[in-house]
Amino acid sequence: MARVRIEKLTKSFGDVVAVDAISAEIADGEFMCLLGPSGCGKTTTLRMIAGLEQQDEGDIYIGDTLVNDLPPKDRDIGMVFQFYAMYPDKNVFEQIAFPLRMRKFPRDEINKRVRDVAEMLGIGELLKEPVSRLTVGDRQKIEIGRAIVRQPQVYLLDEPLTNLDAKLRAHTRADLKRIQSELKTTTIYVTHDQLEAMILSSRIAIMDKGKIVQYDTPDRLYERPSDLFVAGFVGTPPMNFVDCTLTHDKDACRLDAGDFKYDVSDMAELIRTSSPGSELILGIRPEDLRIAERPSDRDRIDGQVDIIEPLGSRMIVNLRVGKHYLKANTRAMPLQANQKVKIIFDRSRIHIFDKKTGSVIV
Ligand code: ATP
């Protein structure tokens, strides 16, 4: 096991800056995710750490060793990629044993390790089966087995669950989490699936256009997003955003969204000092927005139910407030399309962003 440190890592392909001077430290035994939309530089970052891609600038440390000039085989990493190639005529035992045979491990050690890993992955009874007879899910487990059997210092995984259907994905995700918590091997995991990242990792680096925008725990990313990009990327359904301006009159300071006004007198000073312009974006998560049954006078907003998406004990209610569309994630309640309702934002959970810079203010 070892911590991993990257410092000002940069890589361009022609004019495209794929990774732009990113720095991060992944603690010993930590499960860290690189999360972001397609093309943001996740895979390139992982490939540089693996030694499959040479960085233009920056340093990579595994443990205390600067590995910039080491080939992949000398970096002591185990890799699992989305597209796997296996020899179809070899059986499961041989597939998993392959990295150990390459390194000339003794026969007894190979036997023990392969059996232990297969048990851990729940494929112990398949060891004699040829790979060609296996399901996609079992093949993916073999790929994971091959990476962990050598007990490297670091695992690097690139979207390893992409080829699996939803049910198998959830199952294998839980397996991965269990195995990593048992082995406590430092893990860097690439995904564009925010739910997967939130479930698996202790910390997530959110990437956008080659940069790390925020590197934090799942809870902090959800509760305290540093900007609009992170706020919109983490959470399902995503946070509601409403364009507004800051207005003052003699008794109150309000966010004016045209179709409704929201009193922010208690935060006025903070907003004024943090944001020079008055163009703001109000953010509220669907789960922090309530449809009032007994509305009080304060903070209520007139809206109308549009589409309802039932989810069993909960429901997503699409609401119209003038020209604005908002989503509420609420417990199931008897609502109907076009019904007029009062909407309440949880005051302690609203976010306010500067429209120009995207940075969070509150
Ligand atoms: P995805 O989830 O789609 O794989 P990603 O976040 O992993 O996306 P990268 O694959 O790292 O992103 O790509 C980052 C940028 O670098 C993209 O614009 C991509 O087109 C470009 N890129 C990556 N590899 C190469 C390459 N070998 N040659 C040219 N451009 C590349």
What attributes characterize this protein structure?
6-stranded mixed beta sheet, binds adenosine-5'-triphosphate, 362 residues, alpha+beta, 5-stranded antiparallel beta sheet, 25% helix
Characterization of the model:
There is one protein chain. The chain has 362 residues and is of the alpha+beta class. It is built from 9 helices and 20 strands. Helix 2 crosses helix 3 and helix 3 crosses helix 4. Adenosine-5'-triphosphate binds at residues 13, 16, 18, 36, 38-44, 192.
Distance between the termini: 39 Å
Structural class: alpha+beta
Determine the number of helices (DSSP H or I, runs of at least 4 residues). 9
Mean pLDDT, to the nearest integer, reads 90
* Percent in helix: 25-40%
What percent of residues are in strands? 25-35%
List the helices and strands and how they pair.
Blueprint: E1 4-13, E2 16-26, E3 31-35, H1 42-50, E4 57-62, E5 65-66, E6 77-80, H2 92-102, H3 107-121, H4 136-148, E7 154-158, H5 166-183, E8 186-191, H6 194-200, E9 203-208, E10 211-216, H7 218-223, H8 228-233, E11 240-248, E12 253-256, E13 261-263, H9 268-274, E14 279-284, E15 289-291, E16 300-311, E17 314-321, E18 324-331, E19 340-345, E20 351-354
Parallel strand pairs: 3-8, 3-9, 6-7, 7-8
Antiparallel strand pairs: 1-2, 1-4, 4-5, 9-10, 11-12, 11-14, 12-13, 14-20, 15-19, 16-17, 16-19, 17-18
Helix pairs in contact: 2-3, 2-4, 3-4
